[in-house]
Amino acid sequence: MFERHHLAIYRYLLRMIGSRERAEELTQDVFLRAIKAANAYEERSSERAWLFRIARNLRLDDARHARRTPSLLPVDHAEPSAPAQQALRLSLLQALAMLPDDEREAFVLAEVVGLSYAEAAESCATTTAAIRSRVYRARMQLRATLDMPTAGKPLT
């Protein structure tokens, strides 16, 4: 299970919280919780959606804890990349950070991680239509923020 899903979980957490170290820690915690709750897993739900629900809950718990205990450590937003891509990557990360949390989460799950809308909906405890709407709004806001044309070129 870890081999199949850890990179996607890590990418989701990294895009949602911005810190590589914290995303790595939470990714490990996701699989620890999954092991502890293995007998609570219901076969009718997608394994991937179940793991992302655990990741989401851990991320939300972590955010609540961070609000109570502010940190003076800098957030590690940028990933190493070619110099020509760094400006675009940083702009995209900043634009993602400006999105409302529910839209950013839906966008990251569907467009960055690659979950289906149904899996993203299951992970976020909402409907497929709500995820579709959130992803659409996120795309429109990202295009407006990044000053991109609305047709013809993909966002990612």
Q: What does it look like?
A:
The chain has one domain (about 1-145): Up-down Bundle (Butyryl-CoA Dehydrogenase, subunit A, domain 3). Helices cover about 70% and strands about 0% of the residues. The chain is built from seven helices and no strands. Helix 1 (about 1-15) packs across helix 2 (about 20-35).
CATH topology, anyone?
Butyryl-CoA Dehydrogenase, subunit A, domain 3
Helix content: over 70%
Radius of gyration: 16 Å
Please identify the top-level CATH class. Answer: Mainly Alpha
What's the CATH H-level homologous superfamily? PhyR, sigma-like (SL) domain
Q: Briefly note the structural class of the backbone.
A: mainly alpha
Count the DSSP helices. 7
| Low-pLDDT residue intervals, each spanning 5 or more residues | none
Through-space gap between termini: 27 Å
Kindly report the average pLDDT value: 83
